[in-house]
Amino acid sequence: MATKIFVNLPVKDLNKSIEFFRKLGYSFNPQFTDEKATCMIISEDIYVMLLVEPFFKSFTKKEIPDTAQNAQVILALSAESREGVDDLVNKAISAGATTPNDKQDQGFMYGWGYQDLDGHLWEVMYMDPAAIQQN
User: Fold this and answer.
1) Do domains 1-64 and 66-135 have the same CATH topology?
2) pTM for the whole thing?
3) Angle between helices 14-23 and 82-94 (to 10 degrees)
């Protein structure tokens, strides 16, 4: 079995988070969804567990950072093209996200990001396959 990743993120309002991420095109596994959590499917190997804050706290003794003031992690996802980067971030903006940074164009690599409803930072990037093969 291939290694899979399950990222766990605290959310304030699970239903609003589900609605937000559905607008970005993500689906959810109903088998792992209830009033406390849901399993968002990014790809066949990448999943994000959205957990309401009290449930998230049951897994750690650490405090949940205030995302208005602190960044704990930046989640980076690849896109198939530059247009794919812009498309996903524009969908996020339309669904209520903000953009904490400008687009970054380094020629061979292009990226842009958004901050979701709970303040989590997401970066979407495209890298020219020809540039990867040269290294």
Assistant:
1) yes
2) 0.92
3) 140
